[in-house]
Amino acid sequence: MYATTDTLATTPATQGGRSRWLALYTLCAGMLMIVLDVTVVNVALPAIQDDLGFTSSSLAWVVNAYLIAFGGLLLLAGRLGDLLGRRNIFIAGLVVFTVASVWCGLASSQEVLVIARFVQGIGGALTSAVILGMIVTLFPEPREQAKAIGMYAFVASAGGSIGLLAGGVLTQAISWHWIFFVNLPIGILTVALALKLIEKDKGLGMGRGTDVPGAVLITAALMLGVFTIVKPAAELGWTAGRTVALGLLTLTLLICFVVREATAANPLVPLRIFRSRNLSGANLVQALSASGMFGIFFLGSLYLQRVLGYDALEIGLAFLPTTVVMGLLSVRYSEKLVTRFGPRRPLIAGLLLVTLGLVLFTQAPVDGNYVVHVLPVLALLGLGGGIAFPALMGLSMADVQPEDAGLASGLIGTMGEVGAALGLAVLATLAATNTTGSSNPLQALTNGYHFAFAVAAAILAVSVLIAYFVMRPAKTTN
Questions:
Q1: Which tens digits make up the pLDDT trace of 213-222?
Q2: Structure pTM?
Q3: Same domain, 202 and 120
Q4: Is residue 478 part of a domain?
Q5: Distance CA 220, CA 201 (A)
Q6: Are 197 and 108 in contact (CB under 8 A)?
Q7: How far is CA 456 from CA 158, 195, 326, 449, 461, in A?
Q8: What digits encode the pLDDT tens for the residues 197-234?
């Protein structure tokens, strides 16, 4: 089985007060580097396409290669943290990610960049999968834990909009290569701080509790599932023969994985973990909210670029209010809201605000004004995200035993990545296929974006219903 509570007693929870917060900042720095990478690359895609000669269809692999590795390995990476020690996996992931970033920056061909991005995804999965589990063991006291998770949630959710700004600045001021090179000094510093500030924890060891068949099945299923979403489904359609065949194969692998976990003596994912309504509900909400939010950041950037004529730097600056509002709420007020009302009510309120923001985005016209048509949307996304996501992260770990912390951390991350990949593929496809209804190309583009924004709002509305009907109120702390 998993590591016992006695084994996990040697985790960073034994650290003193100040050093625990320094360790948290180090974990957040590692997470920020991973999160930034997703959107910082999106901004640089046109420059990468021009420099390396990507076609419009092949350019998607710069993003997809990363998502397939990242989403496919998160669950396994979380389990490896329980077996080998979460600090070891965190540092190993940072090293892989940093080396792969340099490789990406040096890439002079399409093939090299795509392969390096896949390796980057491996490093990102190893790093991010264990962070939430480390935080809940660092901060077992509910009030401190809520505050720590608020900081983590801010980095994990708002970091994407910071990436838009950073990507615009680096791409426009220097070159796209530097969106990857900048990770080298950050990665080295974060590894050094992790070695100094995070106490080494003792995992169970690979000799016990290792479910190799389960690991192979779930990793293959997740990678194939993400590939199916981002490649044949997006390019050929959801009813195409290849899409259906790969989807059925993915489903078969998932069924085999569930059967394996139900019968294995030492399962990778003990099915008992899903008895918690809050954990199960939180993972569903995570998948749906990530699906809507990630797709909107991507399509919102395209609306600003292709319809309103913004350049890369202007797009980054346009999304800055989301980061500021989300950061203020996540770091300063989320802990107070969770303490006062419990996590469920702030989660529902925040998701409703995000849904409202997406509804407003459906009204952005072809000659839209930033202050009137875009800023209110981004403010609502920041406000809702800043309230909802810290509460969601807290609920996802609330009923988790210490020996399952790495698994639960990897699980919530996996659902977010799979949801993001699905949302991006579905919403981008819907936007493209609904670019109709006008002889004006810009109006037709806007019509397609409006339809995708409406679908995203519907997805977030479903997440509100799940949060309300599935998840249970948690006791408030005084």
A1: 887 888 888 7
A2: 0.76
A3: yes
A4: no
A5: 29
A6: no
A7: 18, 41, 20, 10, 9
A8: 888 877 666 655 567 788 788 888 877 887 787 678 76
